[in-house]
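Incident log, structure service

09:12 report received: a user says their structure output differs between two submissions of the same chain.
09:20 pulled the input from the user's history:
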Amino acid sequence: MTTTLADALTGRLIVSCQAPPGDAMRHTDTLVRMACAAREGGAAAVRVNEPEVVAATVAAIDLPVIGLWKDGDTGVYITPTVRHALALVEAGAAVVAADATARPRPDGSTLSEPVAAVQEAGALEMADVSNLAEGVDAARQGADFVSTTLSGYVPGSPQQSEPDLRLVSELTAAVSVSRGSGGPDRHSGAGRRGAGRGASSVVVGTAITAPTALTRLFVAGLGG
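09:34 re-ran on a clean worker, output below:
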């Protein structure tokens, strides 16, 4: 299963269809429509938050759904426990994305525990990392995919407005599992450069699916 899905995503775009708490877009039906639009645009997979949205998206489109569950807003809160991971599998996620940084998980588990639970339940695990050491360790613990998603968001990682292309290159040289280029994104060129650095696939969210954040950028650009 790993090889088949990894091959299907190689050189392809994964669109993150999410909205932060309080955002006008944060409604299940709206997020599902967003995923449908991404499919029509040629996305190979979508990445969505929370079991309810995962289940609704799985029912609506014939693309692999990468599920995550953001519970909280500090520390490790992206699919922080085995319980969160298995709820996403039950909802129909083909891949479960989880924080795989070196920070302590709230239930005291190591990454290998949700990885094993997810794989035993028939899904795959995507490790969201912020640096090379975390990516290497995630691959060692059995993750099927390693993504640079958290570089730029975790203290100590480069603070920049596009994916960490240096980290993409480092992971390409260091691990054999599929690699995703993710992280802060504002324009289409970042995805192309990520693929050029060896990313197996490119994850894009804000530049496609965040009208509130993009509107703020334009307003700021006008000095508003």
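09:41 both user submissions now match this output. Likely a transient worker issue. Closing.
09:42 reviewer note: The chain has a mean pLDDT of 88. The beta strands are 12-16, 45-49, 65-68, 95-99, 124-128, 145-147, 178-181, 201-204.
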